[in-house]
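User: Hi! I have a protein structure encoded as tokens and I'd like to know what sequence might fold into it. I'm fairly new to this, so please keep things simple.
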């Protein structure tokens, strides 16, 4: 938070704050007929279907302000919702942002939060069309709703996977989880000796994955250009294994994935070793990577075969074949939805 200037919210009041927030928002979508400033936003008609998704972020549960830059938090709040729109194979168009603020928050802090929100709105081409602002007695609460659109036949559900489909994941996995371990460790070091500065420079990639995730809209746009609709899709927010279980349940299928195909960044691997954690467990169960997990029909494989950032980790099987991980030594082990408990 900005230490140089601190304006209490009560000096400008709720309406002053909303004015300040709305000053920097602009409407880009022709479908956004009315944004901030009335009792409700107004959206125009469309011949597309719409998807709507909401995610709530609570201080102390989903983020820790002692190491989370507030601008990144604004970006992340939008990005995680855009990621859910992407996971339906839809294009995000509008978001609403609701915040509950404790008196620890200054006007400057709210402005910094909205810098992050507006950066994300620009990056994902969505309009901020409204929200709500209220006081909180215990910490910051952020609730974002995102709206997106697609042709009806373009929507990818969790339920569409069929036996023999190929399982794909984007990017690399486990990084955000390892980034969180580093941030938590440095926080403990700082708490025990405030003169010690956190050593984060050695872990730029994984701490960035935790603090400022990017929804994979780039992949969604590429899939459209290739005229490819995944048979099923999810974003990876709770960990790959857990998301695979959701697809298996919704689609009534089994899966076989291969340990040596799982994408992992070197910094994730090295840090897992440093923390005495099994790197594969981190990749399978680490959350918050916001990559995409999807299945494609085999006939679509040539369209993606050479893609540098899409990895083919296994295939869909009949439900009675279960959910298995084929290890590097070619043994099949039952996939577990959680390697360790977070709660
Ligand atoms: P109401 O009393 O009807 O809830 P508000 O005074 O809360 O209205 O909101 C006025 C306008 O400002 C509305 O358009 C609302 O969507 C918008 N707004 C309020 N808080 C936020 C926020 N945190 N972010 C974006 N827009 C907001
Ligand atoms: Mg309101």
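Assistant: Happy to help. Inverse folding works backwards from shape to sequence: for each of the 343 positions I chose a residue that suits the local structure. Here it is:
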């Amino acid at each position: 938070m900005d230490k140089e200037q601190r304006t209490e919210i009560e000096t400008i009041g709720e309406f002053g704050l909303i004015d300040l927030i709305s000053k920097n928002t602009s409407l880009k979508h022709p479908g956004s007929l009315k944004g901030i400033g009335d009792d409700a936003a107004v959206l125009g008609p469309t011949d597309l279907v719409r998807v709507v998704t909401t995610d709530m972020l609570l201080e102390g549960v989903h983020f820790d302000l002692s190491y989370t830059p507030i601008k990144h938090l604004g970006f992340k709040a939008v990005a995680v919702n855009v990621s859910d729109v992407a996971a339906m194979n839809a294009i995000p168009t509008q978001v609403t942002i609701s915040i509950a603020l404790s008196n620890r928050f200054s006007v400057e802090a709210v402005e910094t939060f909205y810098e992050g929100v507006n950066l994300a709105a620009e990056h994902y081409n969505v309009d901020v069309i409204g929200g709500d602002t209220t006081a909180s007695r215990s910490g910051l609460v952020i609730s974002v709703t995102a709206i997106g659109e697609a042709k009806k036949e373009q929507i990818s559900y969790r339920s569409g996977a069929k036996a023999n489909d190929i399982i794909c994941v984007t990017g690399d996995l486990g990084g955000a989880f390892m980034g969180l371990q580093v941030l938590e460790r440095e926080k403990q070091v700082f708490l025990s000796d405030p003169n010690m500065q956190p050593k984060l420079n050695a872990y730029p990639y994984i701490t960035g994955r935790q603090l400022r995730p990017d929804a994979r809209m780039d992949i969604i746009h590429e899939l459209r250009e290739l005229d490819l609709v995944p048979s099923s899709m999810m974003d990876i927010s709770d960990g790959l294994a857990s998301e695979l279980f959701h697809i298996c349940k919704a689609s009534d299928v089994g899966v076989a994935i291969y340990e040596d195909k799982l994408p992992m960044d070197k910094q994730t691997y090295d840090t897992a070793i440093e923390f005495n954690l099994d790197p594969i467990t981190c990749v399978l169960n680490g959350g918050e990577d916001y990559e995409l997990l999807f299945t494609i029909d085999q006939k679509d494989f040539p369209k993606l075969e050479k893609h540098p950032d899409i990895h083919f980790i296994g295939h869909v099987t009949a439900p009675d074949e279960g959910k298995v991980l084929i290890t590097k030594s070619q043994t099949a082990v039952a996939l577990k939805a959680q390697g360790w408990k977070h709660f």
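A useful reference point when you look it over: The domain at 158-334 is CATH 3.90.650.10 (Phosphoribosyl-aminoimidazole Synthetase; Chain A, domain 2). Feel free to ask if any position seems puzzling.
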